[in-house]
Write a structure and sequence with these properties.
It is a single chain. With 115 residues, this protein is mostly helical. It has two helices and two strands, in the order ββαα. It has one domain. The chain is 79% helix and 8% strand. Helix 1 crosses helix 2. It starts with 5 loop residues before the first strand and ends with a helix. It comes from Crotalaria pallida.
Length: 115
């Protein structure tokens, strides 16, 4: 049911959590495609500069690439934060399971000791 809850920020509704997650995935796919295009342009411009020994487009494309990375870095971190909290909760569950197994082992040792 949590995915169907609507989240309000300010006066406008932002949509369901699932919608926001889908939009962030689409945004990251677009960002990766844009970065690949920019890297390709940088490589081609560098190759042309080596051949022609003239100023190229690569410095501009590199600046745009870093601008995209720094603008979308907070979104990337917020996209990964649920994954890190999930791994943290899994490690806590494993620790609790191990502690309960150790506790059960000590209880069974006390039962097996003759009086």
């Amino acid at each position: 049911m949590r995915g169907s809850m609507r989240v309000k920020r300010g006066h406008r509704t932002m949509g369901t959590r699932d919608d926001r997650k889908e939009r962030s995935v689409i945004l990251w796919i677009w960002l990766c495609d844009t970065c690949q295009i920019l890297i390709g342009r940088c490589r081609r411009a560098y190759a042309e500069r080596v051949v022609q020994n003239s100023p190229s487009f690569s410095l501009y494309a590199l600046h745009v690439l870093f601008l995209f990375l720094f603008l979308f870095l907070p979104h990337f971190i917020s996209f990964l934060s649920p994954l890190s909290s999930l791994s943290l909760s899994l490690s806590q569950l494993q620790l609790q399971l191990q502690e309960s197994q150790e506790h059960n082992l000590t209880r069974s040792e006390f039962r097996s000791d003759p009086i």
